Amino acid sequence: MVKIGSLTISPSLVNASCAWASDLSQLQTLFDSPYTGAVTTRTSTVNGFAEDESHTVAFASSSISSLNSYGYSPHKLAQYLVWIEVILSAAPIPTAKPFIISITASDADSLRVSVDAIQTLRAKFAQIGVEFNTSCPNIRGTTPPGYAPESLAPLLGVLAAAWRADESLTIGLKLPPYVHASQCVSLVNTLRTLSAAGRSPFAYIACTNTLGNSLLFAEQVTDPANGPEAGSAFAVPPALGGLAGDALHALALGNVYSFARLLEAETESGLRNVAIVGIGGVTSAEAAARMRRAGAAVVGCATLFGQEGVHAFKILSGE
Ligand SMILES: Cc1cc2nc3c(=O)[nH]c(=O)nc-3n(C[C@H](O)[C@H](O)[C@H](O)COP(=O)(O)O)c2cc1C
């Protein structure tokens, strides 16, 4: 059992935000599993994302890895709020199992609108947190704000203000995989500027999202969405996508380890209380243990869940 902000996560195992946490029945299945300590929704936006056949996923044949070209959910945030209310209202016994609503926005105003809408539902169900996705690599023409401190800062300012108005709001940041120590230091520096009186508005960081700009050829995956018969050599239609699963594990462990060291050194800013959700190549109970050893308080997975269904969480629990 782990307490992050005002959320109790027990067991300390969650699904990472992903395409398999997209609709009501998928969310209900995750909620009903005794092996998930919280349910994270697919990232949504105020207006929904225009999904087409170029947005898809393929699984590698030689390891438990995936390459996906998805953007955000086609369903609007408002739809997720309705579904979560349906699930929590129908829970047979009152439950504290949290929903973590993954959202994103490219401007401060729509982020404010999103947080306000979530707060309205939180007045009814307190066990709801917000995860701000800074790191989808597949949005054409857009640098993920997690890689662009100048666009990240105003968005984090909106979230920090929301926390100051209501400190019971649990806010997490989904970060991209960083490939150099200076990127981790820079993120911690940004977070420090938002702490006040030794307290951080952000209860956790989730490391990591997929590694963008990655490529697999059609013959490297089990189910090419756009293989040679469709006239393409690539595993996913845009050729490039976000890499996840085993292929990402070492980098994700390195990010969790780096942030754990940096945060524990933050004695004045309150950042040392920021928890880490370790995500990336958690495809076995051993990999989950490695994430915890590197510094994660909670462990999450997407690729294994996509491959195995909700049974993935039983596998990760080691039972
Ligand atoms: C098909 C697919 C869709 C994803 N969609 C999202 C998303 O909507 N929001 C998000 O923050 N991360 C998303 N991710 C990234 C995952 O949350 C996770 O960070 C990444 O896949 C690494 O974990 P894994 O190795 O267990 O797959 C997605 C990953 C996959 C494979």
Calculate the mean pLDDT score and round it.
96
SSE series: EEEHEEEHEHEHEHEEEHEHEHH
User: Count of DSSP E strands?
Assistant: 14
Spatial order of the strands in the main sheet? 3-14-13-10-9-8-7-4
* Approximate shape: globular
Going by helix content, strand content and strand pairing, the class is alpha/beta
Q: What bound compounds does this protein have?
A: flavin mononucleotide
Low-confidence stretches: none
For the record, the count of structural domains works out to 1
Let me know the CATH homologous superfamily: Aldolase class I
The fraction of residues assigned to DSSP E strands is 15-25%
Give the terminus-to-terminus CA distance.
17 Å
Number of helices: 9
CATH architecture: Alpha-Beta Barrel
- Alpha carbon gyration radius: 18 Å
**Share in helix:** 25-40%
Determine the CATH topology.
TIM Barrel
The biggest beta sheet reads: 8 strands, parallel
CATH class: Alpha Beta
Organism: Mycena maculata
Protein name: Dihydroorotate oxidase
GO cellular component, one term: cytoplasm
Cofactor: FMN
